[in-house]
Design a protein that fits this description.
With 129 residues, the protein is an alpha/beta fold. The chain has one domain: Oxidized Rhodanese, domain 1 (3-Layer(aba) Sandwich). Helices cover 33% and strands 13% of the residues. The termini are far apart.
């Protein structure tokens, strides 16, 4: 009897009974050229600070600092399937913002390769408003 009970406990404790981990994939990365040439098809979010945004940003980008995503939800597209491109200075904050947006149900997210430095290195226009 003890053997049967031990076997049952061992079977229940085996990893085969565990649920699979939630599958999340990193957002696809787009080049600055892809963002520039398709800008009218994207909601572009600059997730840097307001001060960094004022120093220059991708034309048409909306500034929502990465730590204010929840507070500024009204500035986000209502259509959670709409394509959204995120960028910052190094990619760290854009990644954090993408994770936050995914948790809010947004599933068509993209990161811009090279972020703002990648944009400026290409010599593309910068807005200062």
């Amino acid at each position: 009897m003890k053997f049967l009970l031990f076997s049952l406990l061992l079977l229940l404790a085996s990893p085969g009974w565990a649920l699979p981990p939630e599958q999340t994939t990193a957002p696809e990365q787009l080049t600055p050229e892809q963002v520039k040439h398709n800008a009218e098809n994207f909601h572009i979010l600059d997730v840097r600070s307001s001060e960094e945004y004022a120093e220059g940003h991708v034309p048409g980008a909306v500034n929502i600092p990465h730590d204010s995503i929840q507070a500024k939800i009204s500035s986000l597209p209502q259509d959670k399937d709409a394509p959204v491109v995120l960028y910052c200075r190094t990619g760290r904050r854009a990644g954090l913002a993408a994770t936050e947006l995914e948790s809010m149900g947004y599933d068509n997210l993209f990161l811009m390769q090279g972020d703002m430095p990648g944009w400026t290195e290409k010599g593309f226009d910068i807005s200062h408003d």
